[in-house]
């Protein structure tokens, strides 16, 4: 990989999972790509991600991308060399009143060849004795789903992209071209000329888009997690990934040793776009107070740190790939709001197809 590339078919700003998968899909189509990132790969939200992947999308915003994303992760990428999913199963808890919608989604997943079941609270308690689920909740259980080590995935995607991907470690400072036609990206290490540009730089995309007159409103939202070390570990290996739609709690086994990673959706916005190791005592208490209702072993478990980070949030609250017509050649893929990792293979496929059209 060169750090000096000055021209390519496509310039991608952002070496997170969205930019990397798109770049890999572009090189698979025979196109040359320069990925520009000031932090190398996975330096933003991606590197902090919990890596939970599943096909069921209770938000209803991206059901097709979530299912296709899981399928790609199960295939382990183009050459079958990405890390395999830690298939401890994924359990998404929903209010019992929404079970008809969940059952409908499960039928569609099954029709597409995925394994999924709706479980009652009673069935969940029997199957996963460590979990406590009240009767007014139900769960969608996907035995093939689980979580992935995000940095290892990012490295594997970069490797799959091969020599047609050049990684340029620099800050993108503005887009080149006019409001009619994109011509590349200017960076702190010189210009990259390209007839098509993908902005996948999280909130860093906004000022770059503005440099060619495109309004791309994004803000940061706090996303982080805590690590806990439960004293009772007997069935930790059987603990599925859990996402509780009713409280915003989510958790998974850490993977090595005896830790559990747990987070709770935060409404805090406009936080710094930084990834910091550790969590405040207040955050640890906030997370513990919620997750202990589903996994009581965390009520007394000592905290072992965590991550304080962010993701980019679009005004609509969910991510989008947008093909801009002025300037032509510009595609944006931003605003994933805490859920972009599981979607990335499908988002990348879609964005790459649009960029290839722009180049041809
Ligand atoms: C704590 C945490 C847990 C999460 N857990 C999950 C999960 O379990 N499952 C799930 O599906 N999703 C999860 N997410 C969300 C998911 O990680 C993100 O949605 C996804 O990683 C976003 O990827 P991205 O490529 O869009 O952005 P990023 O990974 O943020 O990449 C953007 C890149 O752009 C670069 N950049 C910005 N501005 C510039 C510039 N001017 N010049 C050059 N480079 C620039 C940055 O350095 C960064 O590397 C989680 C997120 C966090 C923070």
From TrEMBL:
Keyword terms: Oxidoreductase
InterPro entries documented for this protein: FAD-dep_OxRdtase, FAD/NAD-bd_sf
Oxidoreductase among keywords: yes
Domain FAD dependent oxidoreductase: 9-353
Record's keyword annotation contains DNA damage: no
A Pfam entry, by short name: DAO
Coiled coil segments of this chain: none
Gene3D superfamilies tied to this protein: D-Amino Acid Oxidase, subunit A, domain 2, FAD/NAD(P)-binding domain
PANTHER family: FAD-DEPENDENT OXIDOREDUCTASE DOMAIN-CONTAINING PROTEIN 1, SARCOSINE DEHYDROGENASE-RELATED
UniProt name for this protein: Oxidoreductase
Organism classification: Bacteria, Bacillati, Actinomycetota, Actinomycetes, Kitasatosporales
